[in-house]
Structure prediction request, 595 residues.
Amino acid sequence: MASIYDYPSQIRRDILRMVHKPQSGHPGGSMGCTEFFTALYFDVLHHNPSAFTMDGRGEDLFFLSNGHISPVLYSTLARSGYFPVSELSTFRLINTRLQGHPTTHDGLPGVRIASGSLGQGLSVAVGAAQAKKLNGDSHLVYTLHGDGELQEGQIWEAAMYAGAKKVDNLIATVDANGQQIDGSTDEVLPMGDLGAKFAAFGWDVMHLEHGNDLDAVRAALREAGTRTGHGKPVVIIMKTAMGHGVDFMAGTHKWHGVAPNDDELARALAQCPETLGDY
Amino acid sequence: MHPYTNQGSQDTRSGFGAGLLELGRSNPHVVALCADLTGSLKMDAFAKEFPERFFQTGIAEAHMMGMAAGLTIGGWIPFTGTFANFSTGRVYDQIRQSIAYSDKNVKICASHAGLTLGEDGATHQILEDIGLMKMLPGMTVVVTADYNQTKAATIALADHHGPVYLRFGRPKVANFTPADKPFIIGKADVLLEGSDVTIAATGHLVWEALEAANTLAAQGISAEVINFATIKPFDTEALLKSVHKTGRVVTAEEHQRHGGLGDLVAQTLGMHRPAPIEMVAVNDSFGESGTPAQLMDKYGLNAAAIVEAALKVRNR
Ligand SMILES: Cc1ncc(C[n+]2csc(CCOP(=O)(O)OP(=O)(O)O)c2C)c(N)n1
Ligand SMILES: [Mg+2]
Prediction:
C-alpha cells in the first residue's frame, strides 16, 4: 500500500513530465496545489473512482474552476484510479482525452464540467450543491479557484448567492499563491483582504497558512467538513507557493504557463523522487 | 385564403409560463431559475406552486447559467428565464463552456426577443441571438410563433436531452396553431401549400407570412408558408421539397439578416439547390424605441414587407 506521503512527489514528477513532452501547459499552479489534491483525493473525498457517473449521486464532488492547472488534476485522477496512469503521456497531444483544459467532451472519467475560461466553476458548484440538497444527498461539493481568478465578477455573483441562500454543503478553496500571469496579484490588481470579502458575502472563512504542508491541508479540509451544514458556505484561503517542490520554479509567476526544457526537467526531477513509479 | 384563425391574441411568453407550470406538475425533475424577471417571463405560477424547485438568482445571469449547468449534475432539468439579450450575448462564454461544451441539459428560455419588446429600445431588443446560439456546437435553437406553439415547445424540451435555446417574445400576437399539436424538435410545419413562392418564416413573422399569403393569393400568386420553429437542427428536407415546387424563397424573421434564418436558408439552397431568395429581416442595424407595430413597420418586418419581397423574388 502506498502511503499518502508518497503522492506529492510522484504527482510533481507527473506534472513536470506531462508539460515537458508537448512543451506546453501550466506547471506552476499545479505544483503549488499538489498537497491540496493529494489531501482531497486520497484522504477527504468520498468518491467512487472505479464507477464514475456524471450525476455523482451518493458521493462528494470536486470542480476545478481554474482549469489551467489540469496537469495536477489529471495526475491525481489517474493515480486515484479514474483512468490508466499511462494515459498521462497523452496530455495536450492530438486525439487525447487529456485536453489542455479539462472537458467532459471526450468522456474522461472524473471530470464533470469544462473549465479554462476562468470564473465559472463556483456557479456550477453552487448548482450541483443545490442539486444535492434537492436529492437529499448529504455529500459535499468542493471547488478550487486561483486567486487571480477571483478578479472575475461571476465569482462574486456566485459568492453572493451561496452566502445569501445558505448553500452550506459547499467548500471552496482559493489557491492564494499571490501570482497570476502578468506578475504578482498585488502588481496586477490588489484584492485586499480576501477573507473579509468572503465573510462580507456571508461565508464561513478559514485561513490555511501552509498549503504545501500535506498534514495541514488534510486538517483544514477535515475541519471545513465539520463546519458545513451550519447555514454558511465554507471557504479556505490557502496560502501556497506557485511551483512548490522545485527550488528554481518556486514562488514566481514565471512558471505559471511555461514548460521546462530538457535540462530543467532533469534538474527538477532530481528534486522529486520517484515514489510510486513513473507512467 | 389561409385556413387559420386567430383564437385570441396572446403573448408567447405566457405560453412559456403555461408550459412550464404544466411541466412542474408532470415532470418532477424540472427546476427553474430566474434573474429578477419572474413576472416578465411568466414564471411566477411555477415559482408559487413549486418554491423548492424555483431558484431566484438575483440579477446575476452569468451565475444563473453556471448554476443551471451544476443542477444538471444530479439529474435535474433546469429551465433558465430572462430576456433574450441577457440569455445570450450577456452570458455567451458561460453558455459556451459550462453548458454547450460541457453538454449540459439546460433549457435557456428567452423572452422579449427582437424589436417587438418595443419602448425599452435597442439595449433590450436583441436581434443577434439566433445567430449567436445557432453557432454553438450541439445547441438546439427553437423560435416559436404563437402562444400554443410556445407552450407545446416548452413541454417538449423536457424530454429532449441536451442544451436548447428557446426564443419567444413580449407582445400579444395572433394565436393560431392548434392547442393540442405536439411540438416536434427539428420538424418544420408546412402551414399552407402553394406553388409560386416559398415563404420560410419563424417566430412572430409566421402569422405575418400567412397574412401575406392572403394578399398574394388575391393577386393570383400561390405562396407556400412554412413555419421553421426549429432553426437548429434545420429541416433541410422541408425546405428543399418546397423549393423544388416553387423555385424561389422569401425568408422572414425578427432578427438580423446576418446570422438568422435567412442566412441558413441561403446556405442550404446554395449547397443543395441554388434558387433566388429575398430576406425580410433587420439589415445590419440596432432597433429603437416605439410601439411594436411601429417598429415592425419602420424596419420592414410585416406582411406588407413579405408581399413586397415575394413580388421581387418572383421577378428574378
Ligand atoms: C476568462 C479568462 N480570462 C483570462 C484567462 C487567461 N488566464 C489563464 S490563467 C490566468 C491567470 C490566473 O491566475 P490565478 O487564478 O491566480 O492562477 P495561477 O496563475 O496562480 O495558477 C489567466 C489570466 C482565462 N483562462 N480565462
Ligand atoms: Mg494565483
User: Anything to note?
Assistant: Chain A has a mean pLDDT of 97. The beta strands of chain A are 61-64, 141-146, 170-176, 204-208, 234-239. Residues A 28-29, 66, 68-69, 116-119, 146-149, 175, 177, 179-181, 242, 256 surround thiamine diphosphate (ligand 1) (CB under 6 Å).
